[in-house]
């Protein structure tokens, strides 16, 4: 189905978009697929771009801020965009097993799509540093989960070697099809706004996503679908900021486990995106991440993971530099439900426990 046909079908079916076919069909002409590619999809993509006025108000000067809520993908993170491509292409060449290292979301997505394709999925995770929701997903989707005593970077070294020695396909973001799928998020942003935003704020771990967005923005720009290109603003956690400080971090540490990565695979491509877009990288502390996380949840009703909140934390930290009247998009990479421990330990909610079970007590607590 062409994009035009697809848009037409959307018009006919109305705003509910029951017919969204997944991003490979929606953007087929922009992706390295052919009739020989068996499309493995959970109808990922088409995530909403949501205005966040409470963030915009903090910046003022007529700035418009949106979040691209990619936590609404089928497994709850943007990793689905890359995985539909990586698994479809792996199936096309007859692969029967995939492997990845993961801080959690890649393993959830790899597990789901691999099982849908009838493949085995092996996932290596840093023992004790994967959020509960993500681990639960990998287990339920039937992955073979290997928790190692070591961090993500070590796990990635191992799976890279494994993919060279054994009949398993690597589906980390070194796999070029991952980035191809992920670039569709930039297409969706432009399709929604009619143009690229002035700033694109995004958290960086392995820096595949910032690379993919930049690729997508450039492709649409070159094809005349956007008049401008955004500045790519990449954010890392202070305890895990190898790209900000142009170094590697031996022992990365942050509450935002999805970006707890000390030696990003896509370092050079991320630097090129920064340079080509006149962008900037900055680090944000865990406290700043949690403040943004609470602001999104408490003021906007948007529950994202701590890693995702780094994009909004970074925007707020650099807010003095946002041009008057600018349009800013912050990428919310993952769903808040992924990390319930973080939520329960970091909120300002009124949570009254151990109450007597009668109306009088309840009314009193309510202040009536
Ligand atoms: C994977 C991930 C990131 C980091 O993306 P990279 O492509 O590795 O830079 C950020 N947030 C969440 C929720 C993720 O799952």
Describe this structure in words.
Helix 4 crosses helix 8. Strand 4 (120-126), helix 6 (132-140) and strand 5 (144-148) form a beta-alpha-beta unit. The chain has helices at residues 3-13, 23-26, 53-59, 79-92, 105-116, 132-140, 152-165, 176-182, 184-193, 208-222, 267-276, 286-300, 306-317, 340-345, 359-366, and strands at residues 49-51, 64-69, 97-101, 120-126, 144-148, 169-170, 199-203, 231-237, 280-284, 327-332. Strands 1-2-10-7-8-9 form a 6-stranded mixed β-sheet, with helices on both faces. A 4-stranded parallel β-sheet has the order 5-4-3-6. The radius of gyration is 21 Å and the shape is globular. The chain starts with a helix and ends with a helix. It has 15 helices and 10 strands. By secondary structure, the chain is α/β, with parallel strands linked by helices. It binds pyridoxal-5'-phosphate. Residues 77, 79, 105, 173, 203-209, 258-259, 305, 307-308, 333-334 line the site of pyridoxal-5'-phosphate. Residues 77, 79, 105, 173, 203-209, 258-259, 305, 307-308, 333-334 line the site of pyridoxal-5'-phosphate (PLP).
Q: Whole-number average pLDDT? A: 95
What's the total count of β strands?
10
The helix tally amounts to 15
Radius of gyration: 21 Å
As a percent range, the share of helical residues equals 40-55%
- Strand percentage lies at 5-15%
Shape, principal axes of CA atoms: globular
Bound compounds, each kind once, are:
pyridoxal-5'-phosphate
Low-confidence stretches: none
Major sheet characteristics: 6 strands, mixed
**String of helices and strands:** HHEHEHEHEHEHEHHEHEHEHHEHH
Separation, N- and C-terminal Cα atoms: 58 Å
The helix/strand class is alpha/beta
Strand order of the largest sheet: 1-2-10-7-8-9
